[in-house]
Specification:
By secondary structure, the protein is an all-alpha fold. It is built from 4 helices and no strands.
Length: 89
């Protein structure tokens, strides 16, 4: 395996990781922003008010999007295994 192939493989892996993590991170950031705004406006400073809804929202999103995540990971793995002969030599 040449250094160029290794770099290509790592680039594709990082792209897939970013593609899978981005929706969850954006949703968590949006919910955190809205909850912080709510806490600031109402002067409530309880940690559970910000933590529990964020965790519940992310868990619900992951549960609803599980089909897309699994199919995307399976497609990536299948493509990686099909191209395995290129990386082995």
């Amino acid at each position: 395996m040449t250094p160029d192939m290794t770099a290509e493989l790592m680039r594709a892996l990082l792209r897939e990781a970013l593609l899978l993590a981005l929706p969850v991170l954006l949703l968590a950031a949006a919910v955190s922003f809205l909850l912080s705004l709510f806490q600031t406006l109402t002067s409530l400073q309880d940690q559970t008010i910000s933590t529990v809804p964020r965790l519940a929202t992310v868990a619900l999103f992951l549960l609803l999007a599980m089909n897309w995540y699994v199919s995307h990971i399976l497609t990536y793995t299948r493509q990686l295994l099909v191209d395995l002969h290129r990386y082995l030599g």
